[in-house]
């Protein structure tokens, strides 16, 4: 089978036409493209850790960590390296192949860089892929991170250029594009996507996907977040997105960036298993795995492994990661744990 070629010249009209396809036609097309590039039954598994929480100077209207809003979040200083390494070890044990470290910074300071570089080295030495999201990076900072062995840098465009100023005023779309350029030039893989359900319209969703697909290289990883509405942020009462619209976004992202991992990212707590299964069918092939995202809840790891088992999905293997045997063990343990938890839960309910 010849794989669909990667294009960087998508027009808004072409992307709109994909969105407007009948749902079944869109999903069939997305799944067909998906199968040209990936094993359809494998999903990459990343675990997130907030290494510096809250009091961020930026004013992103969706974010519980912005210092501009009162979300009751307890702020924390940069975590000690030992703590980060212990969390990474635990994530690996549970079957994650990539460890993503996030900081509530506008950009990393000179003083913090040495700690961050050491974190990269130590987490990488555990045999995990490394990813960081620390805000804007200058060219030299990107080079330093790449030299320390950082595999991926996450930096989201979040929405269309047109809608961006409704969401963030403390930095520009161009600032974000400049950081992405610095990351690419330093030789790291790019993780870049956005958030859906922030009151944007379909043209903004199309606009974001066109922007991503027309970058000189497609981001290797495209996180599609569904807004987690946090009390105290300006977005706490924004209207819910139609779940089918969200599945369509995944499908269009898959078609426009056929060789990228599309991550079903934040917001899974508010999706049922059927919706998640539809997202996998539409071409999502990565998730955040573990009970916590950065500051908000994510499904229980055991429940995710059980869902994988029910759908016949395997966590994607990475070269430097756990052996197949270790991963199978982690899944078996998780499934066993989940099954037992349900048994106890049911017993208690019956006797109550
Ligand atoms: N401060 C850095 C930055 O913004 O680049 C890194 C951390 S920031 C929390 C990483 C990403 O998390 C944001 O770009 C945004 O896409 C996502 N995010 C933050 N709050 C969210 C929410 N409430 N719902 C969904 N995604 C969210
Ligand atoms: C991304 O696109 N989503 C992740 C990760 N990159 C860093 C973050 C989601 C954060 C959700 C809100 C929270 O937990 O604070
Ligand atoms: Fe700060 Fe990142 Fe949150 Fe924006 S998304 S407020 S930059 S932590």
Automatic annotation (TrEMBL):
Binding residues for [2Fe-2S] cluster: 100, 131, 191, 263
Cofactors (names): [4Fe-4S] cluster; [2Fe-2S] cluster
Pathway linked to the protein: Cofactor biosynthesis; biotin biosynthesis; biotin from 7,8-diaminononanoate: step 2/2
Cofactor info, note text: Binds 1 [4Fe-4S] cluster. The cluster is coordinated with 3 cysteines and an exchangeable S-adenosyl-L-methionine.
Keywords, in A-Z order: 2Fe-2S, 4Fe-4S, Biotin biosynthesis, Iron, Iron-sulfur, Metal-binding, S-adenosyl-L-methionine, Transferase
Sites where the protein binds [4Fe-4S] cluster: 56, 60, 63
HAMAP family tied to this protein: BioB
Protein name: Biotin synthase
Source organism: Marinobacter guineae
């Amino acid at each position: 089978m010849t794989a669909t070629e990667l294009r960087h010249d998508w027009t808004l009209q072409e992307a709109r036409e994909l969105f407007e396809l009948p749902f079944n036609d869109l999903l069939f097309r997305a799944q067909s493209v998906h199968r040209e590039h990936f094993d359809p039954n494998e999903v990459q598994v990343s675990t997130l850790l907030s290494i510096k929480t809250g009091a961020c100077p930026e004013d992103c209207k969706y974010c519980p960590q912005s210092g501009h809003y009162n979300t009751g979040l307890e702020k924390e200083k940069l975590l000690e390296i030992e703590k980060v390494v212990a969390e990474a070890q635990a994530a690996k044990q549970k079957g994650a192949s990539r460890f993503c470290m996030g900081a509530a910074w506008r950009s990393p300071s000179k003083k913090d860089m040495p700690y961050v570089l050491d974190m990269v080295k130590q987490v990488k030495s555990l045999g995990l892929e490394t990813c960081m999201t620390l805000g804007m990076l200058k060219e030299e900072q990107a080079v330093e991170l790449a030299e320390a062995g950082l595999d991926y840098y996450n930096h989201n465009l979040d929405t269309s250029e047109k809608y961006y100023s409704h969401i963030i005023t403390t930095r520009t779309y161009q600032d974000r594009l400049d950081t992405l350029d610095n990351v690419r030039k330093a030789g790291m893989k790019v993780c870049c996507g956005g958030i859906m359900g922030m009151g944007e319209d379909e043209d903004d969703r199309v606009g974001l996907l066109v922007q991503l697909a027309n970058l000189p290289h497609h981001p290797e990883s495209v996180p599609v977040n569904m807004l987690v509405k946090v009390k105290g942020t300006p977005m706490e009462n924004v209207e819910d997105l139609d779940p089918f619209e969200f599945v369509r976004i995944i499908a269009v992202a898959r078609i426009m960036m056929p060789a990228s991992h599309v991550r079903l990212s934040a917001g899974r707590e508010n999706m049922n298993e059927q919706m998640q299964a539809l997202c996998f069918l539409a071409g999502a092939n990565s998730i955040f795995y573990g009970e916590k995202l950065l500051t908000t809840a994510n499904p229980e790891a055991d429940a995710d492994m059980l869902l994988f088992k029910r759908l016949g999905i395997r966590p994607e293997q990475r070269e430097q990661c756990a052996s197949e045997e270790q991963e199978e063990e982690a899944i078996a343990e998780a499934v066993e744990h989940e099954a037992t938890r349900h048994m106890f839960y049911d017993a208690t309910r019956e006797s109550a």
